[in-house]
Amino acid sequence: MTSSSKALLPGQNINGQQTTLGVMGGGQLGRMFVHSAQQMGYFTAVLDPDVSSPAGWVSHYHIETDYLDEAGLAQLMQRSVAITTEFENVPAPALYTLGAQRTVAPSARAVAIAQNRVKEKTHFRNCGVACAAFQAIESEEQLNLAMSQADLFPGILKTASMGYDGKGQISVNHPDDLPQAWQALKKVDAILEKKLALAYECSVIVVRGFDGQMVHFPIQKNLHRDGILAVTEVDPGAIEATIADQVIQSAKAIAQGLDYVGVLCVEFFVLENNQLVVNEMAPRPHNSGHYTMNACDFSQFDMQVRSLTRLPLVQPRQHSSAIMLNLLGDLWFKENEEIAKTPAWAELLTLPGCHLHLYGKLEPRKGRKMGHLNITGPNSSEVKAVALKACAILGIQAF
Ligand code: ADP
Ligand code: MG
Question: CB–CB of 134/280 below 8 Å?
């Protein structure tokens, strides 16, 4: 990592190159980072093996190698003055390699902690932030230890790493069911968590600079369906002030404790007894923060650019009420039909305040995130009314 505290300004000529920002991963989050970076005049370089990756399409440079490919990493470093990541499972060793020679944010260490649910929850505890009771299961001894803890049941067994969108999770109602559940996960490192009675789920995006300064976006209320985020609503005042304060303070303590640099999303559960419990963190912009693109004066991707380049972090401001609807590949398929059809975008876009974001993925598949729709308006009831019309047009279940 460079020790200089000078901002990496766009257009600067370093070694005869335009100032180029690198990103590990070419998914939709990388694409939206690239859009923000380019808007500010930066060049971009994306490393992703997929020739048709959403970010690869729109970047100045696309390095089409595996994430651990030495030549690919060398090329990314040669092109880029600073490098960020856009998906959680970027191999930490690749980030260590990059971090030895370039500014990398978030750091390999922070990403490695976020990649492992046991390390992640241990970090939460160390920061004094409550999470669900849990037991790591990485051995037969720990399996037995988990079975002996009645207060962990009913629970959810989750793979310690590589899980996303609810994948790699099994409900376990009774201790006797645990061995079979772990077997079903092929006995990979796992974590058993107590299943909590949720009133609702929320998340917050915090941004921390190299100098330790932190800003945050408003708190998002999230609705998941089948383990995948479906709807995010952001309406100032919708979340009780005491809970909101606690969410922000907890997320900032978690970022501070990691000496984090970049955009961090922290997801929380609000329990039926109004207790706040942290669930997990994502060391990058997050699906639940997409509303910032149209409802705030700066988006989470703008702030990712600023934090990576040591530009000032100003507190973002929400100027519109917002609802974000995820557009999954399911919408391309009518019931019982196998042939994909384009959703009714023209009809949808007759509605006020609808901002359509599509990620340029070539093939719609059920459960695949193809895009999102941000609906903005002057107040939450008008936005909700438009969102329900949008759901009806697109075939999304009402909420
Ligand atoms: P992923 O990494 O796949 O997003 P999460 O741990 O966030 O995994 O779990 C996905 C969803 O499952 C959560 O958003 C929540 O709805 C539910 N869930 C996860 N853990 C618990 C828990 N301990 N108690 C109740 N619900 C949970
Ligand atoms: Mg989650």
Answer: no
Distance of alpha carbon 269 from alpha carbon 246, whole angstroms: 12
Which atom in ligand 1 lies closest to the alpha carbon of residue 196? 24
Q: What is the enclosing helix (H) or strand (E) of 246?
A: helix 241-257
Ligand number, closest to the Cα atom of 163: 1
User: What torsion, rounded to 10 degrees, do the Cα atoms 47, 50, 51, 56 define?
Assistant: -40
Instruction: Find the residues whose C-beta lies inside 6 A of ligand 1.
Output: 132, 156, 163-166, 193-196, 198, 201, 224, 227, 267, 279-280
Q: Please give the distance, rounded to the nearest whole angstrom, from the Cα atom of residue 393 to the centre of ligand 2.
A: 28
Report which protein residue has its CA nearest ligand 1's atom 8: 166
> For residue 155, which atom of ligand 1 is closest to its CA?
23
How far CA 22 is from CA of 48, 67, 108, 336, in Å, comes to 11, 13, 15, 42
- Which residue's CA is the closest to the ligand 1 atom numbered 12? 227
Q: Which atom of ligand 1 is nearest to the CA of 132?
A: 23
| Atom 17, ligand 1: residue with shortest CA distance | 227
> CA-to-CA distance for 144 and 146, rounded, in angstroms?
5
| Ligand 1 centroid distance, CA of 348 (Å) | 31
Query: Tokens in use for 183?
Result: 């077997």
Q: What is the DSSP string of 152-167?
A: G-SEEEEESSS--TTT
Name the token pair of 162.
Answer: 């590589």
**Dist. CA 95–CA 107, nearest whole Å:** 7
Identify the nearest ligand to the CA of 224 by its number.
Answer: 1
Helix (H) or strand (E) holding 142: helix 140-147
Q: What's the rounded Cα separation, in Å, for the pair 28 and 55?
A: 6
Q: Residues 166, 287: contact at Cβ < 8 Å?
A: no
From first to last of the 399 residues of the chain, give the pLDDT tens digit: 444 478 999 997 766 789 999 999 999 999 999 999 999 999 999 999 999 999 999 999 999 999 999 999 999 999 999 999 998 889 989 999 999 999 999 999 999 999 999 999 999 999 999 999 999 999 999 999 999 999 999 999 999 999 888 889 999 999 999 999 999 999 999 999 999 999 999 999 999 999 999 999 999 999 999 989 999 999 978 899 999 999 999 999 999 999 999 999 999 999 999 999 999 999 999 999 999 999 999 999 999 999 999 999 999 999 999 999 999 999 999 877 788 899 999 999 999 999 999 999 999 999 999 999 999 999 999 999 999 999 999 999 999
